[in-house]
Amino acid sequence: MSIGQDAALIVLHAVRDRVWMVAAAVFLGVLLVSLLLPSAMRAAAATPLRSLLLPAGAMLAFGAGLMPQLAAVLTPEALYGILQDGAALLVVSSLVVFEALLLLGAGSARMRSPDATTAEPRAAVAGMRAALFLFMLAEELSRSFLPLYARELYTPVPGLSETLMMGLPIGLFMLLVAVFTPFAGAWAERFGSRRTLLVGTLPAVAGFAGTALAQSLPELLMWRSACALGYAVMFIGAQGFIARHTPPDQRARGMAQFVAAVIVAGLCGAPIGGILADHLGYRAAFAASALLALAAALAAALLLPADRAGGARDGGRFRLRDAAGLLANRRFLALLLFSSVPTKLMLTGYLFYLVPVSLHAAGETPAGIGRMMMTYGLIIVVLGPWVSRMADRGGRHSLFAGLGGLIGGAGTLAILQAPGVPGILAGIAALGIAHAFNNATQLALVPEVCRTECARMGETGVFAVYRLLERGGSVIGPLLAAVIADRFGLQAALVAFGALGMLCGAAFCAVFLLAPPREAAQPRLATPPLTPPIDHGGDDAHA
User: Fold this and answer.
1) How far apart are CA 188 and CA 182, in angstroms?
2) Which residues pair with 157 in a beta bridge?
3) What tens digit of pLDDT does each residue of 375-395 get?
């Protein structure tokens, strides 16, 4: 629950003296620790992750010092709302500080290291991570309220209901990302990744600014199309940049930095965007996105070195007959239809569309919606690495992928037992667990079920077809959710998506766990480290 601006001013006036006292006490405490225990401060600053302990601890101490005064002037509901916003801001600010420390650490290592072959790629990847983080944060700010903003701009259109039109901006964005991605890859090959990135961020800046100023739904769709072009260019350009600027033995670590930037942006975007929309309005949040996209362009211009000649090139172009050949592989088709496409469909249809609309209908503000959506990303961050290690160690990628589908479907059906906010929150958490199980294991399964095709087309070509086909779920998800919600209501749509997830998970388990592959006797191929499909932002963090 948020408090109004007048109430906020009264609270600030009542606690301002306390604020200065607590701030001074926290500052003196940090100063005393640094003077009396310098070794502890050096140990805390040894790594970027440890460096977060000091500002996080200071912020917690500051909040704890203000609690008695706030409790005296606020109602319990208002105090609870402030604590929720404060917790979200603590997490977001810690993650932003972490990104800044990584960039500073890479820059200082480059100046100190005598080995340029190691330090320069690290600095280049750190610069790319900073630019990518800012850009993806710009896109993620609207995650908790984009359908609600579309509803504000809706005017009656014969044959097109308000519910359906609310899902159209998400579906169109996902479709255009899929359409623009091959062109973005070709531009990066021709003009270089750095130049493509610099030019490609311009449509996104214009798109976010135009979205903030849009006066009708057609205008919103037009400007979101510009954002989709910028997203596709940035996403593919960033991958190409890492491939060009990292030697083969460091490329997996470079791609891990790429993935981490998208995940962290997804964690930060929804809660901070919701808070901005709550207090300043939807348009101000999109204006902030435009500024962040512009900052990403400046970061790319200032931090990224010129492209290296002869860098790694993506040979993943494919023809229609390549896709037809893959679809003739029954196990690949089963992986696509029963796991990969449903994963995308649940992400965009359930999380991006049904969750904000349903929570808003239940009385939640954009800030509250953003905090709940943050649960999804936090669970993936915590569980994702553990699941990947366990699946690789036992070679049971199909088991984890099947469990993910069943968990996601069953968890989203919690709405039947706990209608309203508790059931939706349980569904968000279950979807986070499911996608932590699915994201890496799905990609690891592709070369396992397509050994013949990988030998003929190459793994890059197979993955290019796979990526394009799985994005069909991203496009269909919000449109299907809108159609079901329009026809039968939001509750029915939530249940329908849960049932669909359960059915697809069961079908996947029947194909991959109960029916052994014909090539089971063949030795298992080693699967190289792969970039998981983050569908925040990340596809691929969210396309």
Assistant:
1) 10
2) 160
3) 898 888 888 778 877 877 777
CA 309 to chain centre: 32
* One-letter identity of residue 365: T
Of 264-273, 462-471, 482-491, the least confident: 462-471
DSSP string, 212-238: HH--SHHHHHHHHHHHHHHHHHHHHHH
Q: What angle do CA 242, 243, 245 make, to 5 degrees?
A: 65
| Closest by Cα among 117, 150, 155, 137 to 541 | 137
DSSP label of 528: -
Give dist(CA 475, CA 294) in Å, integer: 27
How much is the pLDDT for 525?
Answer: 44
The helix-helix angle for 282-303 and 251-280 (nearest 10°) equals 150
The neighbour count for residue 40, using CB atoms within 10 Å, is 11
Calpha distance 200→297 (Å, rounded): 9
Quick one: which of 469, 434, 211, 223 has its CA closest to 335? 469
In contact, 537 and 177? CB cutoff 8 Å: no
Give tens-digit pLDDT for 159-179. 788 888 999 999 999 999 888
Single-letter amino acid code for the residue at 303: L
Phi-psi region of 192 (alpha: psi -120 to 50; beta: other; left: phi over 0): left
pLDDT digits (tens, 9 = 90+) for 85-117: 777 777 777 777 777 766 666 555 554 554 444
Q: How many degrees, rounded to 5, is the angle at CA 357 between CA 351 and CA 362?
A: 115
pLDDT in tens, 79-91: 666 677 777 777 7
Give the list of residues 6+ apart from residue 70 with CB closer than 8 angstroms, or none: 11, 15, 79, 82
